[in-house]
Design a protein that fits this description.
elongated; about 15% strand; alpha+beta; about 65% helix; 8 helices; about 300 residues; single chain
Amino acid sequence: MDARFETKRQTAGHRSTLVSVAVNIILTLLQIIVGVLAHSQALIADAIHSLSDLISDAVVLVANKHSQKAPDADHPYGHLRFETAASLILGALLLAVGLGMLWAAFVKLQNPAAIPKVHAIALIVAIVALLSKETLFRYMLRVAQSVRSSMLIANAWHARSDAASSLVVAIGIIANLVGFPMADPLAALIVGIMVARMGWKFFFSAFNDLMDRAVDVETESRIRGHLLSTPGVQGIHGLKTRKMGDMIWVEVDLEMDATLTIAQGHAIAEDARKRVMQHEAVLDVTTHFDPVQVNRGGALP
């Protein structure tokens, strides 16, 4: 990977995450204070979600720093999976927060008569939170896509899930204000479901990557095309891929003319490797030379 792009990637991730930290600190304090004073469980649940954003931002900052470390004796393939581990932690965090919200809302709904009417100021804070989080999401996603970081994309969508929860909270508060007291804890319940669902999605995806999941069919097809288009490559087999953070590790057996010298075969293999790495987010390509007999009809084993 180009060193300049890697530096840009790390800097962008650090900057966008610090912006997220600043926004979430302000929103968390505002939502907790107003939520308690205005008797809004939904707003407090949203504050807890914002607090989980702060924790996830801290995880991203640490992962963004450590994942860029060069390979060493203990980690010859580098530290890129630090990002995958961070996404796994983010997913587990979201799942835990969502389940906690569900339980709190369920307990509250067991005694509807005890649900107080929410003060109107809670609605103002909910709308401010909604606009802030949606703006934050759009900013973070744009940065994440520009540097092709799945970890930063996961963190951006975490912000979007927070924006969606603020929308639900605002609707619940409005319903409570017009005479439906159960709407506030119901909104908190919906927020819990949304957060838990998002957490499971990130957790399951990161877990699969840590288990050496192959790339998707479309990406593998492109890699296969780059290899087969290399002059001197008669065919390929044994193509294997696995995720290394946001990068891909490729292993493949290249079929070449059995009459080639070792130097000629090595040159073709290097050409094939470079072709793949120039067009795809590939960390490295490990190749093996399989000699085949070549005639006018093509390659014969």
